[in-house]
Design goal:
43 residues; two-stranded antiparallel sheet; 2 helices; 28% helix
Length: 43
């Protein structure tokens, strides 16, 4: 639904499938990147 509305869905920490890992972050083009940056675990 998010993608159909023009948003982005991704995994927070890995390039894997967010629906498999459960580390889902989604948002519109304006906030998605910032959400990932804030929520990403430190290396």
């Amino acid at each position: 639904m998010v993608r159909e509305a023009g948003g982005t869905v991704s995994d927070v920490n890995t390039p894997g499938d967010a629906l498999v890992t459960g580390d889902v972050v989604c948002g519109n083009e304006y906030v998605h990147g910032e959400l990932v940056r804030i929520l990403r675990k430190p290396a």
